[in-house]
Amino acid sequence: MVDISVVLVTWNTKKIVCECLDSLRNCKGDLSLQIIVVDNASSDGTPEAIAELYPEVQLIRNSRNLGFAGANNIGIKESVGRHVCLVNSDVIVPPGCFEKMCAFMEQQPRIGLLGPLMRLTDGSIGPSCMRFPTVWNWFGRALALDTIFRRWGWFGGFLMTDFKYDRTQDVEVLTGWFWVVRREALDEVGLLDERFFMYGEDIEWSRRFHEYGWRVVFYPAAEALHYGGASSANAPTRFYVEMQRANMQYVKKYHGRMGRIGFWLATGLNETVRILGYAFAYLFRSNFRAAAAEKIKRSMACLRWLTGSDRQSTERSVSRGGLVAHAGSEPVDVP
After folding, report:
1. Which residue in 73, 196, 220, 242 has the fewest CB atoms around it within 10 Å?
2. Is residue 318 within 8 Å of 222, Cβ to Cβ?
3. Three-state DSSP string of 200-215
4. Long-range contacts, 274-277 (Cβ 8 Å, 24+)
């Protein structure tokens, strides 16, 4: 058994995943690493480049796109480490990061899931913690209350806009960009739920860790660089709709009929407010028109999915592997 097994999922991200693998070569310190890459049928030469440049990597090539949860589960089943790290292919892991996280988990035996601080390319801190979604914070997000009153916990919502990211703290949800999982906890909690093709699986998995009595902890003493959105940039509108579909999947699993109605209403309100806001920006901010038009298009597609007018076609495209996720829940931009 090695100290840590690192699992990466790739889809058409050849350049950035090579940067990630270069960082893994230089960051392990005294730890023994097993590196597993699961490729979701990339067509840009990603698996060929990995096979040629990184012979030490255990490469698994899927014949079709299995999504974030399905591909990670394949890698987890091949892992032998005392800890398992699920890290996005657009993450750069600096020296000492794994050592700090493993040492902290050894000191705290009830931590099942640990996440580091997310550093963005501009040097700022990225959002990597969330609360469990509720009807209240869905409506708070829809009305941008978590933006207007971002310092107030009551309005901070599931995006935790009130969280300062300046201390180690137990949290409800760690987003799926970078996880270190204790083997014993993994054996008890089980694999990711593959009904979540992309997005939402991090919320559901974090919930199961809590249900089994394992701590979910944010640990800012360790940090890594996250580029973000390397796969979703290929099809932003379809990825956005899939994010909402994942939220609906979570609601169906953990909330009753009233919760589903609340989610439907809050999502409809959210997209309507966004369309109006971006329409205003389109009319009065000429330098923002291209971006505003894209945002309007995205929200309109979400409303069509929500009302069922193109839900079947969206789900067919997902089942064919038309989308892929390797980033877990990504930050949601605000109007």
Report:
1. 220
2. no
3. CHHHHHHHHHHHCCCE
4. 274/299, 274/335, 275/299, 275/300, 275/303, 277/335
Give the integer Cα–Cα distance in Å for 21 and 49. 11
Q: Which helix (H) or strand (E) holds 178?
A: strand 178-182
Tokens encoding 167: 């201390």
Q: Which two tokens stand for residue 257?
A: 């009929």
State the DSSP code for 226.
E
Q: What are the backbone dihedrals phi and psi of residue 108, each rounded to the nearest 5 degrees, phi first?
A: -125, 85
Number of Cα atoms under 13 Å in the Cβ half of residue 285: 13
Q: Domains in the chain, start-ordered, CATH in brackets?
A: 4-132+163-226 (3.90.550.10), 232-319 (no CATH)
- In whole angstroms, give the CA distance from residue 59 to residue 57: 6
Each residue's pLDDT tens digit in the chain (335 positions)? 799 999 999 999 899 999 999 999 998 888 999 999 999 999 999 999 999 999 999 999 999 988 889 999 999 999 999 999 999 999 999 999 999 999 999 999 999 999 999 999 999 999 999 998 887 877 777 777 777 777 776 666 778 888 999 999 999 999 999 999 999 999 999 999 888 766 678 989 999 999 999 999 999 999 999 997 555 555 677 777 777 777 777 777 777 787 788 888 888 888 898 899 999 998 988 888 889 999 999 889 888 988 886 544 444 444 434 444 444 444 333 33
**pTM, two decimal places:** 0.81
Q: Helix, strand or coil for residue 252? A: helix
